[in-house]
Amino acid sequence: MENPLTFTLLRFEAFMLILMRVGAMLFVAPVFGGSAVPTQAKVLLSMVLSLVLLPLVSIPAGMVPLDILPLAWLGTNELLIGLVMGASLTFLFAAIQYAGQIVDFQMGFSIVNLIDPTQDVQIPVMGLFHFLIATLLFLAMDAHHWIIRALVDSFEAVPLMTAGFSSLVIGSVAKAFGDLFVIAMRIAAPAIAVLMLYNVSLGIIAKTVPQINLLIVGFPIRIALGMIVVGLSMAFFHPYLSHAFDVMVANVYLVIEQL
């Protein structure tokens, strides 16, 4: 018969290891990890999810209570797993924010910054606008449920104390990071194309009619044109982000498979 004390210690150690993975991912993941979410709420959510997962996570057969050093090593391993999974999710939002910064530069807003309430940092106007729209769509599409589902599935694909990092994991994370530039350019492409044509036409006008003060006339037109293009491109923002969220979750599962 199993010693009740041994069983209790095993469960407590398993809970701590689960908490390491869950907490690390939630503290880094988009929406959950924003500074607008209080730290106490993040800790509470991590503990609740860990308690819910505890009966579902299998403990390796023959496992005995560990000393502090082996337990700390395994906890660090689980922490890294959560951080890698969370980082794979944040790349998309970083790309969206970067796309807004590109649009800001084209519109002449690159010197204007606002405080992002979700991250408590200064970012350009269009960067914040695109980021907030993406966050609202993320919640409206229940994409945060996909994150929790991926977290649950990670314990089936990568049980406790079985993960190992290899070059395949690094390659998967690098692929997710590489998608950042492509996503950013696709989001910013309409504004870049229109404003580039505007700059060309402005140069032609400057050569044809040099008496016009293009600095005074051209800047308001550039802003108005940029706002119109961004507004019209919102019609394509939702379907593209829906696909991008699917890619984001697929990248997380790809990382999980390589662990």
Describe what this molecule looks like in 3D.
- It is a single chain.
- With 259 residues, the protein is mostly helical.
- It has one domain (4-258).
- Helices cover 76% and strands 3% of the residues.
- It is built from seven helices and two strands, in the order αααββαααα.
- The protein has helices at 4-28, 39-53, 68-107, 125-140, 143-157, 167-208, 214-258; strands spanning 113-116, 121-124.
- The chain has a two-stranded antiparallel ribbon.
- Strand 1 (113-116) and strand 2 (121-124) form a beta hairpin.
- Helix 1 crosses helix 2.
- It is elongated, with a radius of gyration of 24 Å.
- The chain starts with a helix and ends with a helix.
- The relative contact order is 0.13.
- The mean pLDDT is 79.
Helix content: over 70%
**Largest beta sheet: what is the strand line-up?**
1-2
Low-confidence stretches: none
Biggest beta-sheet profile: 2 strands, antiparallel
Q: Count all strands and give the number.
A: 2
How is this fold's topology laid out?
Blueprint: H1 4-28, H2 39-53, H3 68-107, E1 113-116, E2 121-124, H4 125-140, H5 143-157, H6 167-208, H7 214-258
Antiparallel strand pairs: 1-2
Helix pairs in contact: 1-2, 1-3, 3-4, 3-6, 3-7, 5-7, 6-7
Features:
259 residues, mainly alpha, two-stranded antiparallel sheet, elongated
Give a short overview.
The chain is mainly alpha-helical and 259 residues long. It has helices spanning 4-28, 39-53, 68-107, 125-140, 143-157, 167-208, 214-258; strands spanning 113-116, 121-124. It has one domain.
